[in-house]
Records
---
Amino acid sequence: MDETRLSLIDGEARALLGVHDRGLMYGDGVFRTIRVRDGRPLWWADQLGKLAADAHRLGIAMPEPALWARDVDRLLAQAPAECVLKLVLTRGPATRGYRPVPASPPTRIVMVSPMPAQIEAVAARGARLHLCRLRLAEQPALAGIKHLNRLENVLAAAEFDPQDYDEGLLLDTAGRVVGGVRSNLFVYRAGRLRTPRLERCGVAGVARARLLALAARLKLPVCEDDIGLEEVLEADELWLSNSLIRLWPVSRLGSRLWQPSHLAYSLRAQMDDD
Amino acid sequence: MDETRLSLIDGEARALLGVHDRGLMYGDGVFRTIRVRDGRPLWWADQLGKLAADAHRLGIAMPEPALWARDVDRLLAQAPAECVLKLVLTRGPATRGYRPVPASPPTRIVMVSPMPAQIEAVAARGARLHLCRLRLAEQPALAGIKHLNRLENVLAAAEFDPQDYDEGLLLDTAGRVVGGVRSNLFVYRAGRLRTPRLERCGVAGVARARLLALAARLKLPVCEDDIGLEEVLEADELWLSNSLIRLWPVSRLGSRLWQPSHLAYSLRAQMDDD
């Protein structure tokens, strides 16, 4: 067995899903990507809370937290101490066209995969950002949710070579900055922290929420707002966040260069406290 | 075995797909829904051509037509003579984040499911349309493609009870008419046929292309254009198209009523000629 690719489906050790599942047919589901450190899933309560909130927005029944916890305990007992945990919740196999079948049981998937290399190396040198040509569509009904409809992210990620760039920067169709392809963005300038509002598109990640809360505790002024590309280029510092990287300082966007700062690394270290 | 739910994955009689497949993880794939009549898939060349065109737009490798044909022959030999055939093509199991792995093999799925009831009954009495509250996002990079990111359709279909309505009418965020939740829309007025342009959102279906071609052969003036809701309400006739229903005349939208016409049924019958 490949211990880096373990999975449970509805609590059973399986790696195969019914082909009629709405997760495959329509991308009708939500997911979470979670860092596992020393065998423990980090930010667990936040992650499960976000999964429940996203499921609620789509009207997908959320399994009991105890079921998720039992699955995760079982899987992590066989997994490397440092790995990536993925929770997937789909609306299940009941399909008669697009319309959801009321009160049908969802599908609960827990997966483990290897921790990507380079996370710490990029944190140390700073991330190189590619400005994506793809613009994110504005869909308030899905904005903020980490759902399984991720073709925009796939197309954006295909735009750049990971040898040259560590992340892509996404704008919406109106030219507002939304965030990274797989991360949220923070703009730091003159002692103030700003991050894009995510009511029209983008994913409101758990790391973003934790960084906002941490900044508030540190009395750092924070604001969610509409942010343009000029503001990004005029930033004193630019940071990316997600649950795996926690925080990456950005070192380059086009010809604009930044030096990673002590503040960035201090915040990054404090985000690690679970 | 449930003969109404047969499936082949990469040519093997299987109903289970690897949980790491990008079709599930990201909705990273395309599909086709095909009417089977007397054991034959209708509009086969058009369907396969559209699947290839959609796959090309997403950069997914298209398997040889002969492979699809062999799968379909095998499956239909065991299936009811009247059923629904679904072809699904995903970017395959190779995943290391959103970025597609170049030259990785796709996953080829062929499925059979029962023909929905009521198609002929609705055709006879006319379809009752619900005006959906959900507005379609404008994403030119995905517009026209029948891809696996269908959460907008799921949310729109959840808005209405199929006891009361046969289809939902979708507008985009700017208020332009796009089409039905699972169909394309045609507006007929004063001898002229118009259908929404689909460069910003929506799916450009095979039935739509066939109806446009048929109208052109019949010297009926046809035009793809921006269409507003007022124009829909002022139509002499309103038609919906997809590969299963072929053409449904619309009988009701809000308080506006229409009578199904001879023209609609004549076109519907001619669409059936393969």
---
Amino acid sequence: MKVIMEKDLLRANTDQAEQNRELFNKNNVSVINMISSPGSGKTTLLEKSADSLRDYNIGVVVGDLYTARDAERIEKAGLHAVQVNTEGMCHLNSSMVARAVKELPLEQLDLLFIENVGNLVCPVNFDLGEHTRVAVLSITEGIDKPSKYPGIFRDAGTTVINKIDLLPHLDFDLDTCINEIKQINTGTNIFVTSTTTKEGLDEWCSWLKSITKGNGQEA
Amino acid sequence: MKVIMEKDLLRANTDQAEQNRELFNKNNVSVINMISSPGSGKTTLLEKSADSLRDYNIGVVVGDLYTARDAERIEKAGLHAVQVNTEGMCHLNSSMVARAVKELPLEQLDLLFIENVGNLVCPVNFDLGEHTRVAVLSITEGIDKPSKYPGIFRDAGTTVINKIDLLPHLDFDLDTCINEIKQINTGTNIFVTSTTTKEGLDEWCSWLKSITKGNGQEA
């Protein structure tokens, strides 16, 4: 009987992630791993960013437990989408991503988003081969989430504070939230966005454009 | 070298959960496992229910990755609280609960809430010894969450649709959401609540009172 232990699984995941990153670098595509709670607005953010990014070739790998709803929305927005159904698993791993990107025209892409399963805990330990991570926080979740789920906010090169249009209706202090994030991760970029009012989308999309074809680094 | 496999861990969890349930039954305390995404409003719902439940003895086991913020809030609301820090683990298990309830006056309690780690995926497979599960969904997460994360909504004896005060500001159809939940779980109780306007809190608290000391069954 062969027993595969968790540390072996994590090492195998990291090895495959390195291979993914080499493939992405060879194809000169910048890759973003997007992580958040369920319902933070990742898919809508990508839908609403599509128009500003129409001069670029964008791919999206969408992780979901079972459904293909998000990938259908992404395709309608004109982006290349591949759905990965994890069959109940709580995060994407690098093998799933390796299989998924075979379905995309990698050599044509400028930017690839990997939309992880909605989960603030488990995706943290799984390198997918991305160049950078984006944490998305909906302000409806409360200002305490960065402190309560620090792993994801510590590793994020960029943090998007989303659904800011709801600010007048919530007991939420934006400055306090930004300070909490900066205490955990001094270097993270922060964008404050709403897909309803479009606040902050220009800045977010300008940053996305600046990292295309730069393997995740700003040009 | 002893290798503990995942199925052994799950069986051990279920065995300990049965022991927990026996202990709860012996003490005639009804136990609720509350599961949701981060930021759905579980803690605030308990805070705001405390006043209506002041004639009852209520305990809360609060699961968090690292902080004790929620337990501090629960204590301020006058309930007995114990914090379980999972040190990064994505769900509570039955051993953690067994240790936690040693810190509570179980024999005096009418009702015990176990507030799980904010996560719509991983807590599903871990019986904690509860009598019933409550799924909490914030309407800010979108109507597609029950279909995208069916495990938790399938097992929930009760579903709370929370933050309903934000309905005018969101693209969210309540009837569609309720239909999606009922397609997954025809028998679930549904409460529609707001801790801001107090809508639905009377119905929610009446139901809680009806199950106290009944080992999770309505009197």
